[in-house]
Amino acid sequence: MPILAQSRLTARILVWVVVAGVLMFSVVTAVTVLQERESMYQAAREDAHRNVSRSMAAVSAALWSYDTAALNATLTGLIQSGSIIQAEVRELNRQVTKIQRADLQTKPEAQWEVPIMRPNDAEQIGTLRISESYREVRNQLARKFAADLLSELIKIAGLAALLFIIIYRSVTRHLQTLARDVSNLKPGSVPTPITLQRKVRHDELDTLVDSINRFRRERADVENALLRDIAERKRVEATLYKTEGDLSEVAEASRHKSQFVANMSHELRTPLNAILGYIELILDNLYGETPDKMRKVLDRVQQNGRHLLGLINDVLDLSKIEAGKLSLTLADFSLEHVVHNVFVAVEPLANEKKLALDMHVPPGLPVVHGDEQRITQVLLNLLGNAIKFTDTGAITVTVATEAASDALTIAVHDTGRGISAGDQRAIFEEFRQVDSSVTKEKGGTGLGLTIARRLVEMHGGKLWVESKLGEGATFFVTLPFNAKMAAGS
Amino acid sequence: MGQCILVVEDQEDNRQILRDLLTFSGFEIVEATDGAQALDAITKRRPDLILMDIQLPVMDGYEATRRIKADPATKDIPIIVVTSYALSGDEAKARAVGSDDYVAKPFSPRVLLAKIREYLD
Asked: Are A279 and A301 in contact (CB under 8 A)?
């Protein structure tokens, strides 16, 4: 029965119902039958006595007249049914006749005697001995018990079938629907709410269905949110990859450009070096006495040539930094020595403008690990700028160590015109000076600070300015004592 | 007879400038345009000083310097390496191969002459 195989729960309930029913009804029937046994025995005995007393007149007449045939016929009538299995007629101590059932096998269970009186007289002429057996009664009881039990069983079976139909219709099939619907849930599918084909509402099943529907809806919401999230993430990733690709192409192109500029600058410098070399030889009278008029022009040619060379060198430096081609040559060096060298180099310029140059270097400065040449370049640039943009006063260089951060600070202070807040950012950008008139007046490429900042950053340090208009400016350089190679960054 | 300087330089203009400068200053010069030629020239005539450019065809200045300094017969000849400004770390490399001194391009002929005179007196 496939429907039962699918409704194991129902089947189990039915088995219990049947077992309990059979047990219960068996006990009830057994008790009933036991109660009925006594009264049935009683009825059988009374029946026997009644039959005997009804036959007594015929027995008496037959015995009086010694009509044995009539006597036997009467006794045979007695044993035909009921509990009487044997009837014996005695006269004094002599047996007259004895009739018993042909199939008599059981022993008599009770025996009693009735005196036979002379017809129409009170004189006893004989005795009727009756033997009874209740086997028939017991058989009857057993048949009744079996019949009762059978009818109960049929009732129980009917009840079970009814129960099965009720349970199946009202519970099992809905549970099966629920199981099917729940197990068919696919991730990302839009759930159609489960509805049961039933008229009854608002019971435990509906509560269950509501809970499942709510759960499915919430699960679907969460799933959809997750799926959307994943899709979004994939989209972002795809965009990101594309952007990365684009960016790396841009970076690559930028590197190529920087490489080109680096090569170009190098090519430009070679003939320029030759030009400057020849001019110097001419000015040194190597090719004969140079007339003063020509010397003045050659001086201008030399100045412009040097400016051009400076520009090319700066462009070369910057493009090399940007192409990641500029690497630091790291070694231990004495910062005091570097500061001193820079001072010696810029002293003539300061003297020319009658500016004081002060240097404060604390004694016992630790050895610095970095690119000595590049640090020199940075300090030359800062001091060169300070002298260039200061007309009166002093340039002060202060070196301080910061034990806490394993770094040192170099401050280059001037008493120049100062730099406005807006210009403080601009001066670190390529080819930017405070204004173009300054370039004409003071010279310079506008690349020096950009390069200086990049060089300091390559050392893992920082370069910034603090200034107010009219109050001079201080350029700060922090340098770690031990520069890690950060080239190309 | 003045002291002899070997100028190793592949560019004609630079050779011309050095030739004019050094001859004017009373030196005798021998010219080579690459490292291999320089080694060749040394075997023909031992110079008193060598001006060695770095970027050279055939054999570059580092290799030529390393070989000259490795040979016991020529290792005493002072070598001034002329480094290219464009290549950072040239100075360290120049020292590593055993050069005595270096001048960074662009050099002023006057400064170069002063440096040469430190080694030749």
From this structure: yes
